[in-house]
Amino acid sequence: MEEQGQVASQFAVFSTACRAFAPIYRQVTLTALRAALAQASASGAENSLAGIHGDWDLAYGDVKATWHDYLRHDNRGRPFVLIGHSQGSLMLKRLIAEEIDGKLVAARLLSGILPGVAILVPENQDVGGDFKSLPLCRSESQTAYVVTWESYRDAPRPPANALFGRSNVPPLRAGSTNPAQLRGGRAPLDAIVGYPW
User: Which is it for strands 80-83 and 109-113: parallel, antiparallel or unpaired?
Assistant: First the structure.
């Protein structure tokens, strides 16, 4: 029941336009997550988190299996939006790279909303790097795009020791989209908390 309540509250802003499919998968434990973060920090690339095997492959296997089940039984050729956060964004980043980017199904992707994970792109570009054909979003009318950001308190750039929002894979940089100002620049954000019950 706790999981259903979390999905309902976090998805509330989308609920009038979308049907929710929120799979429960065997997430990486906090201990494994800390070990992965330490390994990523030592290697200097947050990106390496998605490539860590073991517990990460188990979690990703659940997400991938659910994706294929959704396509077979529920999608029926409709457009879709993928939304993750934190560990879920890591899973969706890998799913998009392996199962969607550059494939026919990408034509039905309206948006990938992946806060809390770096999507690497070449400097001054919105496509290339982690995803070969899916760009960062820069317009409200755009489709087949990705929205991603990492938030830090009162800082124009992540601090030098940050685990998120940076890249140590030159010449790629961590892409970022401001959901309140897709073309770039500053814009105020208002928190929205919705409870449909």
Answer: parallel
DSSP of 166-178: ---STTEEE---B
Q: Give whole-number Cα distances, 126 to 29, 99, 137, 138, in Å.
A: 33, 20, 8, 9
Question: What percent of the chain stands above pLDDT 70?
Answer: 81
Pairing of strands 120-122, 172-174: antiparallel
Query: CA torsion 125→131→132→135, rounded to 10°?
Result: -50
* 99: pLDDT strictly greater than 60: yes
Q: Among 33, 60, 61, which residue's Cα sits nearest to residue 164?
A: 33
Closest CA to 26 of 66, 69, 58, 65: 58
Residues contacting 11, CB < 8 A, separation 6+: 18, 20, 22, 83
Token readout for 164 is: 């998120």
Distance CA 9, CA 2 (A): 11
Report which of 84, 49, 33, 38 is spatially closest to residue 167, judged by C-alpha positions. 49
Q: What is the pLDDT of residue 114?
A: 94
pLDDT digits (tens, 9 = 90+) for 145-186: 999 988 776 666 667 777 677 787 889 998 988 888 888 887
Omega into 170 within 30° of 0, i.e. cis? no
Q: What number is the average pLDDT over the span 117-145? A: 92
pLDDT of residue 70: 96
Instruction: Please report, for the chain, how many H helices and E strands are present, in that order.
Output: 4, 5
